[in-house]
Amino acid sequence: MPRGILQTLARNGGGYLGALIVLVNVAVAVLAPTVAPHDPLDQDIARRLLPPSWLVGGSPEHLLGTDQLGRDILSRMIWGSRVSLLIGLLSVLISLPVGVAAGLVSGYFRGRLDDFVMRVADVQLAFPFILLAITIAGVLGPSPRNIVLILAAGGWVVYARLTRGQVLGLREKEFVEAARALGLGHVPLMLRHILPNVVTPIIVVATFSVAQMILLESSLSFLGLGVQPPTPSWGGMLSDGRGYITVAWWLMTFPGAAIMLTVLGVNFVGDWLRDLLDPRLQSI
Amino acid sequence: MQRYVARRLAQAILVVLGVSLVVFVVIRLSGNPAYLMLSPNATEAERAKLVRDLGLDRPVLVQYATFLRQAVAGDFGRSLRYNQPALPLVLERLPATLQLTAAALIVSLLIAIPAGIAAALCRKTVFDSLTMLAALFGQSMPVFWLGIMLILLFSVRFHVFPTSGSGGFEHLVLPALTLGLYSTARVTRLMRAGMLDVIGQDYVRTAWAKGLPGRTVVLKHALRNTLIPVVTIVGLELGTLLGGAVITETIFAWPGIGRLAVTAIFQRDYPLVQAVVLVTALVFVACNLVVDLAYAWLDPRIRFD
């Protein structure tokens, strides 16, 4: 099996590239204190708004230049990757079990509970989530913990609907009926016989969802309702640079490119996982 | 058809009620609005009087019922910041947002429909792979970064379009392009999938088998039936576009309701936030209802589902 995985990875150029991007990203985030050339909070007004090192006026010490307070852009981006990856992963890790549990229970028992859960999901899907997210972030106050909770509150629906759809088909299958006839209780039945059969599509959806969450977090931080300064975050760096758009293009170009590259990498991995695990899921 | 319309209408009302409840509860979490409306050195008696006048001492459910009754009558409360009724403030800004969203939708459909159809017809060729790769890039791009890159290129570097504000057509170009390109990626993927679906149908295979020329098969048999996926996609994209408009309006200082919501949140003007969210919900649900009914009209199978 591991050899099979590696072979499909080699054949799928995008998956290979995506896995590489994600691995490098994670490594950089974990090793931020050692790989960052400068302290991300270190200000030096004398060296403010330095262009990238390859341009006239650039300094070899600051590869991607400095911001309006003379902080090193590259170092801030390296530390910023921690925020993006951590918030993206945590919000998925919270919303996934909640959504899967809701989908399992409502698909298995049907009835009133199912109606209720699906109506709540409909309401949530029927409205642009970002508008609710900024409202809640504004009211509760923007902290990393609140951002994770808000994103998780928006993310569970996808898993719930997906799981429920699968469970509806599975609960009528013979192996489930057989297990029930043998006297297995509801909970062990759901966990041991139904859940393993829905894991594959959930993994694929969860991967795309990490990408989505990273984008949402950066949007919130860009609007000033996400991670607060001086903590470096990619969205926040773009927001800080807005006032200098006519004089210092590098303030916003590089952090934005980092967001895009990361999200692209995760999406590539998601595409690859989908092809590998379940070719029928072309529509996701 | 009547039963279908009735059911969709009931669902639409449910969505609006759901959104209103969530917003109502969230905003009550922010603390007592009476404290925001009074000066810091108001006396305890003044506070108590205001709390009583606003009905804030009554049970939350009663407050929600009052709020709903007033909202139905068109009273969404007063903006704390402007000291005016909130609803007219929102309605004043609504046309700008609708204009931006419509322009973006046109940009998106103009690019995505031909691209998606062409990709589906040239399936498994280099053109198809490149289109899908471009779409994946587009989906991975934060909309605010796209906007900023367009400003850097067309405003700062080449001075073709203004960086922000509103007014003439030239002000609309960059925001519409930003928001439009943001949705183009998704629409192209959906369009390609929809066309692939149609091409795989029996009647298309029959048309090929009859020996009809390729042009006739594509234009007459396949293309006409992609109208249904296009309608579905427009419905799906409205939410994405309205959400994206919040950010796009902020970047380009476009005077729509998205920017109004963001500034109102920073000014803790919660009645205004509440009004924006509810008006958005109403607009969105109304658009979706129209799309769904158009869908049922185009495809009779839906009505009997």
Tell me what the structure shows.
Chain A is mostly helical. Chain A has twelve helices and no strands. In chain A, helix 4 packs parallel to helix 7. Chain A starts with a helix and ends in a 7-residue tail after the last helix. Chain B is mainly α. Chain B has a domain of 207 residues: MetI-like fold (Orthogonal Bundle). Chain B contains 14 helices and no strands. Chain B is flat. The model of chain B has no long low-confidence stretch (mean pLDDT 85). The interface between A and B is large, with 46 and 52 residues.
Secondary structure tally: strands of chain B: 0
Largest sheet: number of strands, sense, barrel closure of chain B: none
Q: Which structural category do the helix and sheet elements of chain B fall into?
A: mainly alpha
CATH class of one domain in chain B: Mainly Alpha
Fourth-level CATH superfamily of one domain in chain B: MetI-like
Kindly state the mean pLDDT of chain A as a whole number? Answer: 87
The CATH architecture assignment of one domain in chain B turns out to be Orthogonal Bundle
So how many helices of chain B?
14
Q: Report how far apart the termini of chain A are.
A: 25 Å
List the secondary-structure elements of chain B in sequence, H or E.
Answer: HHHHHHHHHHHHHH
User: Helical region count of chain A?
Assistant: 12
Task: Provide the β-strand percentage band of chain A.
Answer: under 5%
Low-confidence stretches of chain B: none
What percent of residues of chain B adopt helix (DSSP H or I)? over 70%
Return the average pLDDT of chain B rounded to an integer. 85
Quote the distance from N terminus to C terminus of chain B.
11 Å
| Oligomer description | heterodimer
Give the overall form of chain B.
flat
Question: Order of helices and strands of chain A, N to C?
Answer: HHHHHHHHHHHH
